[in-house]
Amino acid sequence: MTAIKKDFARRLLQVKAIKLQPNDPFTWASGWKSPFYCDNRKTLSFPDLRSFVKLELTHLVLENFPEAEAVAGVATGAIAQGALVADALMLPFAYVRSKPKDHGLENLIEGELKPGAKVVVVEDLISTGGSSLKAVEAIRKHGCEVVGMVASYTYGFPVAEEAFRQAGVTLLTLTDYEHVVEQALETGYIADNDVELLHQWRKDPAAWGK
Length: 210
Fold this sequence. Notes:
The chain is α/β, with parallel strands linked by helices. The chain is built from seven helices and ten strands.
């Protein structure tokens, strides 16, 4: 798995799906300042990389959650990836909205998940884990069992790790913060003196840059 984490981190950097700007930080939707930005949806534009993500996420499910009877993607970032995984596994697919539609049937879950089904959740990126675990809660309230979650990338924030632990959800990812920083340093994308700044940010991202 370590080889895959390194390989995927390198590929994400190559297509600029991950950007590191220690001296020119981004502002996230949450308002957090960050020297790090990840957009896994960009992988969908590169057929070889799209296929890599589909196959490796599928392998994670087969190896760790073979009991899965359905796949649920988290809107919007993981709808496409979830559908690709479900297609590879020949399993039913649905996706979970961040909030119910304000018209029509006012669905929160789009597609059909049969109550009692064992569901594996597909996510594209884990930051605080809040939106991912809201999707888990919605699936559980629907009467299904969440057997685990697979995702392309995680920042590995302590707050997220604790949230997943408390929710009783096993999370497996194709790569993570450590492997991206390692590959970025190895390829010269960042310098040695950038690494400590990135580590300081990751320890307390909410307060960093204030």
